[in-house]
Amino acid sequence: MDVPAAVIFDLDGCLVDSEPISLEVIATEMNCLGIDDVTINYVRDRFLGVSIQDICKHVSDRLGNACPDDFTQRVEDRLLEEYKTRLRQIPGAEALLRRLLGAGVKTALATGSSLRRMGSTLDISGLAPHFAGTAFSADQVPNGKPAPDLFLLAAERISSPPTQCVVIEDSPHGVKGARAAGMKALGFVGGSHLYDIRAAQGRVLRDAGATQVFDNLQEVGNEILLDHN
To answer: Which of 58, 86, 114 lies at the terminal end of a domain, its last residue?
Structure first.
């Protein structure tokens, strides 16, 4: 492929290794509601890349009544507290962002996280300076992933035609959203939450429309910038 005008990243699981913490917190909060069979793997298998609103619908189904009004708030509060001591960047994240900047490739974020969570994640991880004015949340669009809305918003705000954007995603919902927006999607399986299912997740991402799948960010950069040496 030609060097793209812009690269749009998913945040969780692609630039920050936050998914293990998120899966743990969601499982814990569901357990607290009496849904005792929920484990981290249960959450991973069903909800990777899914919005908290969809998780709330599942909670309602399991409980047989409405998801508690404060469920989302409790999940987010617990998560951001854990982030303060446990959140780390995916290895090579900052190096890749600097490399793209040096090559004149624009970068943006398109995350299913809330604006609050997105801002805190960027601040705590140290990545905020790389996305000043170019980080976008599902809170800002009518429909989250796998709808194309969020990716189209990002492309519009960074003045890049969708056909000249490449998206980096770790979930099939994100890949499908990118493809629906007319963008090329590369799959990423380098997050620690996928350590034991990388091959299987790679197949899922390809089936969703990812043209290639990578497990480290240096190789992602090599592919984007045509540096295959």
So the answer is: 86
